[in-house]
Structure formats: structure tokens, C-alpha cells
Amino acid sequence: MKIYHQEPVEANVIPEVGDYLTARYHLTDGAPTRITVGRGAKWTPLACKEVYGKAVKMAVELGYKSCVFDLTAAAELGFAGLCAAAEGICGGSYQKKFCLTDQIEADMDFYADGSGWDAADLENAWELARSIMMVRNLVNCPSNLLHPETFAQKLTAMGKDLPVETRVYTRQELADKGMDALLYVGDSSGNPPALAVLRYTGAPESNQRLGLVGKGVTVDSGGYSLKHGNLDGIKGDMAGGAAVAATVHALASVGAKVNVTAVIPACENRISRESGLPGDVISSFSGKTIEVLNTDAEGRLILADALTWAIEEEGCTKLLDIATLTGAMWAMLGFVTTGVMANDDEFYHHLEAASEISGERFWRMPAFPEYEKLIESDLADVRNTSKDGCGSITAGLFLKKFTQDLPWLHLDIAGTADNKGIVWEHQVPGATGTAVSTLFHMACHMEQL
């Protein structure tokens, strides 16, 4: 975003968004259209994000190609406000155009003006917004153009020209390591599985490392437990993997003082002669055995191996996994709220604090030990589906068994990763890039964790 100064010559009022918005277009002669936003009675990062999102949407509808945004109101909220404004501007103007070469970005030039903000902070806020748009691009990408190895390569490419170590592990390397649960799912496809790892060390003096584990299923047919109904969403089951890689990109771009590793198991869940069957018993990288009762509950299988990898291969001391994991979560919380499970109250409170900055919404699910009885197996250490309901809770408790009692958070973004309609003004239909902003702000305060 460039800085521009021009006095307005005429103004048009933009309709209000809830209790938030007082904004005007200043139509300038031969110069970018200037947009001034004044804070409403409720001025939070979410309100700020909504205001700038609505403003830019109307600019797009009116056909403007070049806009100056007055960021004075956003600056009242400090760096959080600049991040919110940047996300609102990028998110509201996002165009889901597509060609066979790559995503096409919105045809609009953005400029910044106003007072009370620092150019370096704005640049960092812009990097966060760009990272979120990277997630949208990947999740919106057709699955025939995003095979597991291609996806893994695109994720590691996010570390290019940044102080990020990256590695893509091939199917043979995974087999040599004993990543049996990941291979059990991934070998159902002619497109082999892969594992993408991005390591950023912004605090080399610290022995703490946050492990971000994201589900990367680029096609999810459900396997032999075939999905039924509308299959439009089977290409976006890699939103969690895209989110954690983008978080590392954002943290490295701003030089955050944190050590973080993203681990993304990438595969397809298809039907073939090699596909697993309900009733199978398999092993995992941890050595625990798993009874597979539903092949459409594949995400937790690959995340189990990836969590173990984050601990044993990457030395992570705290864990957070994120996945479009259960339809039950969407049925309960819809497109608005991400469900969370946690085994550490303090770690969860840091997520809550970060969500106040990001404006994203989360809800903690119960994890009482009585629920664990629902995933007890007579044939293995654990079963991959519940015996009787509580699908989102038992999915999280399944993953908890692979955390080796480290502080852990589980984010189920089944509803919030993609919206069929418009929930927020800073979003458009399609992929949302959810949780990247929250994870970024939480990790930036890693020294407090």
C-alpha cells in the first residue's frame, strides 16, 4: 500500500454497517478516489475490519480502480487496527477470478493516508493481509490443479526469500519414517502423499517452539465411507494446512520474535483398490494403533502422524492443530465461530486474547474424560469415530491422544474456512483464510506463552 496525499473536492456518504460505519468517498479530479472512515460507537478490530471491508466493496461496485484510504480511525486501535483495516481492504476487494496459470488479484490500487500510524506497522499489517489472501487463493484452487505434492511445494514456496527453512518429504521418505496413518489415507490415490515443513526461528535464544499442524487433504471423497449430497466442498479440505503455512509466512515477513514450525500432511482421500476399508486396524507414527470405523474420518488420522512428527522430529514444545475436521462443528456453530478444544487453560486464554485483536470468534468445547469412552476400541488403542454422537468433541479427543501431554489447542474450522454466503463484510463467498490473523497475533506474543 502506497502513501498518497490529496485534498478531497467532493464527498458521498457510504451506508452504515451496523453501528460501525461513517465513511465518505471523496471524488478527486484525475487522482485516486479518497475514502475517509470515521469510527462509530462500537470501535473494535472487528468493527474496523467490517468498515473498511464494506467501503472497499462499494468502491469495487462503483468501478473505482484506485483508492486512497484514510487510516486515521484504524490507527486509534494501534497495530491491531492497521491489521484490521488491511484485512478489510484486501478481503473485501478479493476477486475469485481464476485462470489455469494462477489466481488473479483484484484490479485496484490502494493508497494510505491519514495520521496516527507508522509506515513500518502498516507494512507489517499489509504482510498479514497478504498471507490471508494466499490461503484464499489455495483453498479456492480447483483440486485437479492442486495435487498433494503440488500443494506441498506451493506451501514451502511461501518461505522463499524469507528466513524460513522448508522441506517437502516424499512418499518414500514418509514410508521409511513409519508415517503409517498418513500413508493409509494417501495411498488411496494415484497422486502420492507428501509432508510439507516450514521452520522459522525468530528467537534463537529460546528453547520454546510452537508447532502448527494443519490438515492438507486436497481431495476428500470420503473413501469407501463415501460422502453423499453436494460434493462441491471436497476440494477445500486443506484449508488448515494453508493457514499454518501462511501464518509462518506472516511471522517471518515481520521478523516476529518467535520459533514456530508448520507441519502439513498432504494427501488425497479417494476410492481405489488400495483404499482402506471400515473395520481396518492400522498403526501410526507414534506406535499407537487405530481402529478405522469410517474412512471419511481421515483428517484425524493424518493429523495424528503430523502431531507426532512435530514433537519428535521438530522438537515443538506447544502444539496447535487446525483442520476442516467435522461436519458436526459446522452444524453446531455455522460459518461464524470456530470450535476449540484445549488441554491447557493458559494456552487457551492466549488464543482468546489474540482473537480479541483479530476479531475472529472461537468457542471452547468440553473435554470431560467421560467423552473418551466413546472412542475406546476393543481391537486397537483408539477408534477413529465415536460410538454414539459428540462427533466434534471425540474428534478432538482422538487428536489429544497424540500430543504426548504437551500444551495443545485444536481448532475445527469446518464451518469458518469457507462461506457459501457472506457472513462478514470483509469476506466474499468462498475461502475465508480463517484463523491466520489469530494465530499470527498469538504467536507474536509467544514470549508470554
Task: Describe what this molecule looks like in 3D.
With 449 residues, the chain is of the alpha/beta class. Helices cover 34% and strands 22% of the residues. It has helices spanning 45-61, 72-75, 78-93, 119-140, 148-157, 171-177, 180-186, 239-254, 299-312, 327-333, 345-358, 391-400, 436-444; strands at 2-3, 11-14, 22-26, 33-38, 66-70, 97-98, 103-104, 109-113, 164-169, 194-201, 210-214, 216-220, 259-269, 280-282, 290-292, 318-323, 338-342, 362-364, 382-383, 408-412, 418-419, 430-431. Strands 9, 10, 11, 12, 13, 16, 17, 18 and 20 form a 9-stranded mixed β-sheet that branches. A 6-stranded mixed β-sheet has the order 1-8-5-4-3-2. Strand 4, helix 1 (45-61) and strand 5 form a beta-alpha-beta unit. Helix 1 (45-61) packs parallel to helix 3 (78-93), helix 3 runs parallel beside helix 4 and helix 8 packs across helix 13. The radius of gyration is 22 Å and the shape is globular. Mean pLDDT is 89; it is low at 1-25.
Q: Could you list some keywords that capture this structure?
A:
449 residues, six-stranded mixed β-sheet, globular, 34% helix, single chain, nine-stranded mixed β-sheet
Query: So how many helices?
Result: 13
| Beta content | 15-25%
List low-confidence stretches. 1-25
Distance between the termini: 32 Å
Total strand segments: 22
- What form results from the Cα inertia axes? globular
Which radius of gyration do the C-alpha atoms yield?
Answer: 22 Å
Assign a percent range to the helix content: 25-40%
Q: Report the mean per-residue pLDDT as an integer.
A: 89
Largest sheet: 9 strands, mixed
Structural class: alpha/beta
Oligomer: single chain
